[in-house]
Design brief:
Elements (H helix, E strand, L loop, with lengths): L1 H19 L6 E12 L5 E7 L3 E6 L3 E12 L2 H10 E8 L2 E8 L8 H6 L5 E11 L3 E7 L2 E7 L3 E6 L2 E7 L5 E5 L4 E14 L2 E76 L5 E16 L4 E8 L3 E3 L4 E7 L3 E8 L7 E7 L3 E6 L1
Parallel strand pairs: 2-6, 2-8, 3-7, 3-9, 8-10, 9-11, 10-12, 11-13, 12-13, 13-14, 14-15, 15-20, 15-21, 16-20, 17-21
Antiparallel strand pairs: 1-4, 4-7, 5-6, 16-19, 18-19
């Protein structure tokens, strides 16, 4: 599937290079649009842009400031000037709601970005937003074909970026939504709680309390997370440390550093690696097919285990005590305990066509 992923990604990125790339034309025209509004503490800000960057910073002032910088470059001066005239921003304002949306030739009833670019002669367009907003406001921001950046927000955030990158600082609200398609190397420093939807993307999240992730063909990394729930196909999940982790997915590589409380995985055609089950963990449950499982645990950890495999081997640390061992041509089962029997902490693994290794670490 990897070659398919690369080809499909290239197919989507090529139009971007044609219509919004850094064309070195003979003529460059620029203009700027600026608005400033006084808003309520809990106001909503909506932003919608394409083909440029969106940089949002927050402050303690009751003011939304929006600056839009437009630059058009091309070889035909008349075409460049026409395109610059046709680009506008639709601003709407009330004390409780501010919106800014990039528009192109709004006089046409059925205009679209593709038809608009198709009528140009080798024209490059860049539309950049620079925004300041109250840190307590809610935000709904979409930026495609460019970088979306935000430093810090206490209000609810709904962020959407396609064919670009996200650079997010801190999201402190208990309800956030992040969507990214075809983005690369996005970063999020801190999220209190969020739902994330990612397709054909890669991102790193520093620290979070609660995350729900739905992803396909993506590479997702979590440095430290308290409660993580994932549904993903085709890609990789990397975790530094998690308290509770529930994962569902196929064709996925799970690379996990430390689990402190609970792990529940159901996966086929992938790999599972856990560098450390910390002493005091409560439960590990794994159901998998065609997936290698490699778990390491603190030697001082106390737990009971049952490992059941079909067409696969089982390797268990000498530090553990095996109380039952069954084996025939296709099936193997081993159960026992580490430290203290009937501790209330458990490891249960059932897998087919994938070996299981359980190793103690000092």
């Amino acid at each position: 599937m990897q070659p398919y992923y690369k080809i499909l990604l290239l197919a989507f990125l090529l139009p971007l290079a044609v219509v919004a790339g850094p064309v070195k034309g003979k003529y460059t025209k620029k203009k700027s649009l600026k608005k400033s509004y006084t808003v309520n503490k809990d106001a909503m800000l909506l932003l919608d842009n394409k083909y440029g960057s969106m940089t949002i910073t927050t402050w303690d002032q009751p003011t939304v400031s929006i600056e839009v910088y437009v630059e058009v470059t091309g070889d035909d001066q008349e075409d460049v000037e026409e395109k610059l005239r046709e680009i506008d921003v639709n601003f709407e304002y009330s004390a409780s709601r501010v919106s800014a949306k990039t528009m192109v030739d709004a006089r046409r009833k059925n205009w679209s970005w593709s038809s608009w670019f198709g009528s140009s002669n080798n024209v490059s367009v860049e539309i950049n937003y620079v925004v300041k907003m109250p840190v307590t406001n809610d935000l709904d921001a979409r930026n495609d074909y460019g970088t979306l950046s935000l430093d810090k927000l206490l209000g609810h955030a709904r962020l959407n970026c396609d064919y670009g990158r996200m650079d997010i600082g801190e999201l402190w609200h208990a309800d956030n939504y992040i969507k990214m398609d075809y983005t690369n190397k996005s970063t999020i420093d801190y999220v209190k709680s969020a739902s994330i939807n990612a397709d054909y993307s890669s991102f790193t999240l520093g620290e979070s309390e609660k995350i729900e992730l739905k992803a396909d063909y993506s590479h997702s990394e979590f440095k430290k997370v308290t409660d993580l729930n994932i549904n993903t196909d085709y890609g990789s999940i990397t975790i530094g440390e998690a308290a509770d982790f529930v994962g569902r997915g196929d064709y996925v590589s799970f690379k996990i550093g430390t689990i402190t409380h609970m792990l529940d995985l159901n996966t086929d055609y992938g790999s599972i690696s856990v560098a450390r089950l910390q002493a005091g963990f409560k439960e590990v449950t794994i159901r998998s097919d065609f997936t290698g499982v490699n778990l390491k645990y603190d030697a001082s950890a106390r737990f009971d285990f049952t490992i059941d495999t079909e067409f696969a081997g089982i390797s268990i640390s000498d530090a553990a005590t095996i109380t039952r061992s069954d084996s025939d041509y296709t099936d193997k089962l081993k159960s026992g305990y580490n430290g203290t029997e009937n501790s209330g902490n458990t490891i249960n693994i059932r897998t087919s066509y994938g070996g299981v290794k359980l190793r103690a670490i000092d």
